[in-house]
Design a protein that fits this description.
352 residues; alpha/beta; Rossmann fold; OB fold (Dihydrolipoamide Acetyltransferase, E2P); five-stranded mixed beta barrel; 14 helices; 10 strands; 16% strand
């Protein structure tokens, strides 16, 4: 039996009894219709109770749970500190305010509690980063050669399914280039599990790789990973849920999905694209530079050879097909930036 049905039955019983009392009271004006009034108002009360009860019992509780689930732990903690401080200030002022003549002595202490609690919560939530820095200092959370790291740990990064399967996010996070908490919503984890259970062998292998990457992230001492039950009601697609959740939490999404990247940018959600990071850290070469490279295969055009730099940048070598499986010096002639990454065109620099 669901909780919703239990509350409906309780509300039906309470309002049915209340309706019966009302009907019995109204029957005093017409004693001949006592039974009719009582039965009618009892049935009306029961119907009213079974329909209306969830709107002031279950629905507000669910709404409060949804609201709290969207708030970061640091925000909740700062709000609780602000509430306690507001109550203390209000308690200190309640005695002198109660000495005022009526009605001020009775009204102002209560208003003071509401006012100072509100200002306490608002102030501490607004300055939650500063509060965290102070608490971190008292708690000794200072790294060698640096100050408090609360501002970075307070940052939340949403992980997409594609970037977990890709696996490079684990290496990037371990280097410290993704400071903060890596948040993985439950619906992303469910999608990953669905992929891992796929009958398709390739999809199953990708899903299991994603599970292994998550295990590596959780074992890494320098990375904070949190799996949350946060969800977005009324939305089925995982990408749409991620975008809405990122807007609610005001945090970026870590992904390498091109479509999610575009959709999020259109809605003003910041994106951390692992592919863009990989392209940004590739070696920079200029036309005229010379370096050695191993030619490993033929190119698409006649006479071309193809090699790869240490960072994976493709190098297309003119007349390089006769140097396959050899390392030769080449001179850069052109650098081309494409959507897939950076391509370098070169020619052999061999002395006759």
């Amino acid at each position: 039996m669901s909780v919703d049905l239990i509350f409906r039955l309780i509300g039906m019983a309470v309002f049915a009894v209340a309706g019966g009392y009302v009907g019995n009271g109204l029957a005093s004006y017409n004693p001949d219709q006592n039974m009719l009034y009582t039965i009618t108002f009892t049935l009306v009360g029961a119907l009213f109770g079974i329909v209306v009860t969830p709107y002031f019992t279950i629905r507000p509780i669910r709404g409060l749970r949804t609201l709290l689930s969207r708030l970061a732990a640091e925000t909740l903690f700062s709000g609780m500190i602000g509430l306690v401080v507001g109550l203390i200030v209000a308690a200190l002022l309640s005695f002198p305010l109660s000495l005022l003549p009526d009605p001020f002595g009775k009204i102002l202490p209560f208003l003071g509690v509401l006012l100072f609690c509100y200002f306490g919560v608002a102030l501490f939530v607004t300055r939650q980063t500063d509060v965290g820095n102070i608490l971190s200092g008292f708690g000794g959370r200072r790294e060698e050669g640096g100050g408090s790291n609360w501002a970075q740990s307070n940052r939340t990064l949403l992980l997409d399914t594609s970037v977990i399967i890709d696996g490079r996010v684990a290496d990037v996070a371990r280097t410290g280039f993704l400071p903060g908490t890596l948040l993985i919503p439950r619906f992303v984890l469910n999608e990953l599990q669905y992929i891992a259970d796929s009958p398709d062998g390739l999809r199953r292998a990708r899903g299991r790789r994603g599970m292994e990457v998550l295990a590596e992230l959780q074992k890494a001492s320098s990375v904070v990973v949190r799996i949350s039950d946060m969800d977005v009601e009324g939305v089925r697609e995982v990408d749409d849920k991620l975008v809405i959740l990122a807007r609610q939490l005001k945090c970026p999404i870590v992904t390498n999905d091109y479509n999610l990247n575009r959709i999020a940018e259109l809605q003003g959600v910041p994106i951390l694209n692992v592919n863009e990071l990989a392209n940004a850290v590739k070696s920079v070469v200029l036309p005229g530079e010379t370096f050695a490279i191993n030619v490993i295969q033929e190119g698409k055009e006649v006479g071309q050879g193809v090699g790869y730099m240490e960072d994976g940048t493709m190098v297309v070598i003119e007349n390089g097909n006769k140097f396959i499986n050899r390392e030769i010096p080449v001179t850069v002639t052109k650098v081309l930036q494409t959507a897939a990454g950076r391509m370098v065109f070169a020619r052999p620099d061999l002395k006759d």
